[in-house]
Amino acid sequence: MTQLAPLPKVILGSLAFGVFWMLAVFPSVPFLPIGRTAGALLGGVLMIVFHVISPDDAYASIDLPILGLLFATMVVGGYLKGAGMFKHLGALLAWRSQGGRDLLCRVCVVTALASALFTNDTCCVVLTEFVLELAAERNLPAKPFLLALATSANIGSSATPIGNPQNLVIAFNSKITFLQFFFGILPAMLAGMGVNTVMLLCMYWKELEGASPDEVAAVKEMEAVEEGRSPAPAATVLSLANINNKSPAAVHGAAGLRLRRNGDGDDGEESVMSENISTKHRWFMQCSEKRRKLFLKSFAYVVTVGMLVAYMLGLNMSWTAITTAIALVVVDFRDAEACLDKVSYSLLVFFSGMFVTVSGFNKTGLPGAIWNFMAPYAKINHVSGVTVLSLIILLLSNLASNVPTVLLMGDEVAASAATISASAVTRSWLLLAWVSTVAGNLSLLGSAANLIVCEQARRAQRNAHDLSFWSHVVFGVPSTLIVTAIGIPLIGKINI
């Protein structure tokens, strides 16, 4: 039974958490425009200054495995991007695409399925800029696709123990096997993915009209010509040929200039020989570079598949990802600074501050007090009890984040279900996994995936977009409530 801390600690801890929450929601408030990352650090510092949490406990509350996993996936994502994986994914998404609505459906499906295998955070790290580029190429608004990416990543990640951190905690504490977990939530995940996609289409139907295929092709051709990746149109080539058409005398003069540059007699022959040697050297260098790139691409794909297999075998996710990242760095055999510079360190700092702030808020006892008050009404063998339990999980997941919520409520929910039956215990863990994960779609602060999409989109080099708190809430609230409600009756329907 969780007890409230002394009143001054509750007040000061709630104040510090309120400062963090305000700056996370409104990163540029006029009276304190320090941004989301500095706001998270400020919340953590206030927790220590107010003696809500000790410095040692603050450092201990920082979840290094999650930070390591996030850092490593950013590095791996950089190498996969260099290997052209996301160009192939782009071809898959764009192949015979029938417009913006069809593309949105593909983004939802691909993101959901990939998140179940590669974690939602990983998919959001590596796909955000890519999805923005796809939208820009088709003259489509960025917001629907960012919402599709974030919400589908959360829904899809609910299906496996490796989909997100809270599922890992649940799988470890409940001793549910990978296949039991997967088949127990799969029907809810598929139904939720479909409903979420339909809601996105309904809300942004008109905005997803975009440009016609001919207009998109014309834009791509113009960009290719400007960047020198494609020859100019035939009319342009013909006009240039007419402009550059010279008389025989001019051509002869140019040949004479070349002779003068090369010199006469033996000197000219030596110049030709050296030019031939230089050409052969460049050809060998180009062949070697092509082979090197082909090997690196193949290696990147192989180790990524190996990383996925290691996840399924139950190896430590964080160190598996770090090992994969270091293997890519070593095999690349070049200074890794260019790749490491692409890591969003401000995002890692933000999460560090958030961990300290949330840990301090939990020490006030308020999240636990909410459960103590509502537990008698949250029995899993009644529809009303499941409804109350789901609302509690939704609330706490958005106030204190989903991982602390799972850590706080897991044992209590399982103990309450144990008084009913053994199957009820398994269903209670799966229900906790489903609701706490989908709860991440309620607001930007609901999950790390949302924050990753928001920060990556804001820093994107092309088609950057600032996904605000309110623009997310307008879709996130109805989507979360409906998807959660539809998925709950389907939890545990398939038993393995």
TrEMBL record:
**CC annotations in GO:** plasma membrane
In the bilayer, the protein is annotated as: Multi-pass membrane protein
Membrane-crossing ranges are 6-26, 33-53, 59-82, 103-128, 181-205, 299-331, 343-361, 382-400, 431-453, 473-492
Q: Which key words are in the record?
A: Cell membrane, Membrane, Transmembrane, Transmembrane helix, Transport
Instruction: Tell me the compartments it is located in.
Output: Cell membrane
The cross-references to InterPro entries, in alphabetical order and at most eight, read: Cit_transptr-like_dom
Q: What is its main location?
A: membrane
Q: Which residues form a coiled coil?
A: none
Query: Could you tell me what this protein is called?
Result: Citrate transporter-like domain-containing protein
User: Source taxonomy lineage?
Assistant: Eukaryota, Viridiplantae, Streptophyta, Embryophyta, Tracheophyta
